[in-house]
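[09:14] KT: can someone run the structure on this one? pasting the chain below
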Amino acid sequence: MERLEAAMTKARAARSTTRAAGATDGLGMPADAPQQRPSEVTGQTASGQNAAPGDWSSLRQIDIPVALARRKRLSALLGTEFSTPYDILRSRVLRQMKEANWTRLAVTSPTTKCGKSTISLNLALSLARYGQFKVILMDFDLRHPALADLLDQKMPPDLPALLQPGARFADHAVRFGANLAICTNRAPVRRSAELLQTQATAGALDRIEEE
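[09:31] RB: done, structure tokens below
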């Protein structure tokens, strides 16, 4: 891992030299920014009424404009200079998850307003850009949901409804790019701790992952 971080530091130094020579793209972003830049994702939609389970093309596709990414500190979308810390975090997370044989990761904090939603979204964007698997990000901060605001989603669905038997994932998730699905939540939920601990919630997560 230390060798990887040293290589990243060396690469950043080389890119800084390139940027000093004026190498930027048309958005004023570094020319070496990730291929999936915010402005390259369109707001296409798909109803998904006839889609088979697991068909991600049925998910409504959202756009994250560059201005929104900058305003909401979505650094994972703003080029290597800004995304590198999250890419390093991604490498460490993937290594630990592989060693422990985990497929799910929870991000929490001791108090509110610590930045866990921002970190979670940036990490999910970095994982998606890695391109080796599909990623689902769900806002389980049911008392203070913030993910919808980060994405500027005006009327997000209610996440608890997705946990009910028979609920369709395509009705509760949106898609950014080819392999990141995001489930936001509209409003605070009463008895959120009890909801998270039920067998029904565990079963719903198993169902979603299987599909």
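[09:33] KT: thanks! Strands lie at 60-61, 135-138, 174-176, 180-183.
[09:34] RB: yep, looked fine to me
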